[in-house]
Amino acid sequence: MNLILAPEYGGKVLYHTSEKAVPNKFHLKVKFSDDTVLTVRLTSMGLIQAMKDNELERSYVFRRDFNPEVLSPIDEKFTFDRFSKLLTGNNRMLKSVLVGKEAIVVGLSNSAFPDIVYRARLHPKRKASELNEDERRSLYDAIRLVLKERIRLNGKDQFYDLYEKQGSYTPAMGPNMKQQNCPVCETHIKKLSVGGGHVYFCPKCQV
Ligand SMILES: [Zn+2]
Q1: 87: CA distance to ligand 1 center in Å?
Q2: Which range in 81-90, 99-108, 131-140 is most confidently predicted, on average pLDDT?
Q3: Ligand 1 centre distance from Cα of residue 119 (Å)
Q4: In degrees rounded to 5, what are phi and psi of residue 6?
Q5: Helix H or strand E segment including 149
Q6: Ramachandran sector of residue 34 (left: φ over 0; alpha: ψ -120 to 50; beta: rest)
Q7: How far, in Å, is the centroid of ligand 1 from the Cα of 51?
Q8: What's the pLDDT tens digit per position in 59-100?
Q9: CA–centroid distance, residue 36 to ligand 1 (Å)
Q10: What is the mean pLDDT of residues 33-42?
Q11: Rg (CA), the chain
Q12: Count of alpha carbons within 13 Å of 201, Cβ hemisphere only?
C-alpha cells in the first residue's frame, strides 16, 4: 500500500520515536514494528489516502505531485529547453499550465504559483504561448529558485517537518502580502481571481 498525505491547507505529519511522544489529537496513527509512530493531523481541508500501486493513477494528488511521466522541476532533466518547448504552443493560462493535474510539471502547489509569477514579473493571467524567450527564462529561473530555497530553508514558515522543526521559507508573494506594498515598487498589492482561486500580485511589477 501507498500512503498519500496531503495536508493542503495545514496540518502536521510527525514521526515519534516512542508512543509517549504521540500528541492527543490526530486523524491517523501508524505504529511501526520498532515502536516508533507516525501521526497525521489535518487542521483544515486535506486528504489522507491508502492505495495500492495499481490504484495510484486514480488519485488527483498523486497525479499532481508524483506522476513519474511528468517533468519535476527539481529533476536534472528539467532543463530550460525542455520547459520552453512545453510552454510554446500551450494556449492555457499559466496557472493551469504550472499547477494541477493538467500541469506540464509536477509538484507545484497553489501557494507556489503567486510566489513564482511575482519573481518572474509576469501577470498571473498571462497565457503560456504568449511568453517570449526572456519571459520563459524568467519563469524557469523563478521556479528553480522558489523550490531550491524552500528545500534549503526546510519548507515554508507555517509548516513543520517530520521532527516538528519549523520551516523558514517566506514566500515573496502570497496571502502573507495582503494589505501590503510591493517591496520593489511600493505599489499596493492586489488580489485577483484566477482559475478558481485567488492570487495576490503587484499590478505594476507583473505585466
Ligand atoms: Zn511592484
Answers
A1: 25
A2: 131-140
A3: 10
A4: -140, 80
A5: helix 133-152
A6: alpha
A7: 44
A8: 888 887 888 889 999 999 999 999 999 999 899 999 999 998
A9: 48
A10: 96
A11: 19
A12: 24
Going from the Cα of 20 to the center of ligand 1, the distance in angstroms, rounded, reads 50
Spatial distance between the Cα atoms of 203 and 34, rounded to a whole number of angstroms? 54
- Cα of 45 to ligand 1 centre, how many Å? 32
CA–centroid distance, residue 191 to ligand 1 (Å): 13
What's the rounded Cα separation, in Å, for the pair 130 and 152? 32
Say how many Å lie between the CA of residue 204 and the centre of ligand 1.
5
Distance 58 CA to ligand 1 centre (A): 41
> From ligand 1's centre to the CA of 128, what distance in Å?
21
Question: Ligand 1 centre from 181 Cα, in Å?
Answer: 8
Q: Is-contact 122 206, C-beta < 8 A?
A: yes
pTM above 0.90, yes or no: no
Q: Of 123, 100, 70, give the one whose Cα is nearest residue 8.
A: 100
The grid coordinates listed for 134 are 526572456
* 3-class DSSP string for 79-102: CHHHHHHHHCCCCCEHHHHHCCCC
